[in-house]
Amino acid sequence: MYELILFDDVDLPPATQVAFARNFGEVQIHVLSQYHGYKDHPEIYMLSNLDKDGNPSGKHPDKGTLFWHTDGSWRERTGQATMMYSEIVPEAGGETEFADMYSAYELLPQALKARIEGRRAIHNLDFSRTRRHGVDLLTAKQRAEVPPIAHPIVRTHPDTARKAIFLGDHAEWIEGMDYDEGRALIEEINAMITSPARVYTHSWTPRQCMVWDNRCTLHRATGFDEARYKRVMRRCTINGDQPF
Ligand SMILES: [Fe+2]
After folding, report:
1. Residues lining ligand 1 (ion), CB within 5 A?
2. Residue 102 — very low, low, confident or very high, per pLDDT cuts 50/70/90?
3. What's the angle, vertex CA 90, arms to CA 84 and CA 96, rounded to 5?
């Protein structure tokens, strides 16, 4: 079972993208409604740095994407697959990096495996959004819609039955562990499982569609000059199951 699939040079208008995504399951309507790209297609999460005149705004649309994470890990039913379509890509930067979480688990030192055995981490969008984006935070209503949720740190992929690490930037603390100790352990493992030697970097060209499995990978975007270049990406995330 592939972790990433790339479709090159495809025409994928928004309605077609949503219809395509529905083949994989129920498509998420993101709680951060300010990212909904189209009135008729709230399933599309728009990542664009363009201002209302279509010029680079100098602002990154979602700084949380710059840190290793897996989509929708803050939901009870986490992201199964994400489908990203590149409309406009910057001349430099704005890549997406991926790390495999099966081998991350297999390669984890035994002492660390023992520390996380049977443990659950609390994933919290409010935590990561506040920490990384710093502005345009969740409203009280949005916060109420996505309360913190516990997921096993080592999950079993429902289709392959293989074990994978399930952490990333939305993971805040560890159940039954001192808050600071859990925070430190999450940071330590997040760094270890995304070491540069284990990362695939995808440099986008326009009209590409990438589908990835959120259950066994982490990803992040690399930065770019938001005042100089345009970057417009359309995302659909398909809801999966509750990790076990
Ligand atoms: Fe993401």
Report:
1. 71
2. very high
3. 40
Ligand 1 centroid – CA 60 distance (Å): 14
Going from the Cα of 219 to the center of ligand 1, the distance in angstroms, rounded, reads 6
Q: Say which residues have a Cβ less than 8 Å from residue 24's Cβ, sequence separation at least 6.
A: 80, 81, 83, 211, 238
Query: Could you tell me which residues are beta bridge partners of residue 96?
Result: 202, 221
Instruction: Using the mean position of ligand 1's atoms as its centre, give its distance from the Cα of residue 113 in Å.
Output: 26
d(CA 151, CA 143): 18
Banded model confidence at residue 143, pLDDT cuts 50, 70, 90: very high
- The pLDDT-based confidence of 36 (bands split at 50, 70, 90) is very high
Residues 150, 49: Cα–Cα separation, whole Å: 33
What is the dihedral sign for C-alpha 175, 240, 86, 88? negative
**From CA 171, how far away is CA 195, in angstroms rounded?**
18
In this structure, are residues 93 and 224 in contact, taking their beta carbons and an 8 Å threshold?
yes
Q: What is the dihedral of CA 51, 55, 60, 65, to 10 degrees?
A: 100
pTM as predicted? 0.97
**Ligand 1 centroid, distance to 70 Cα (angstroms):** 6
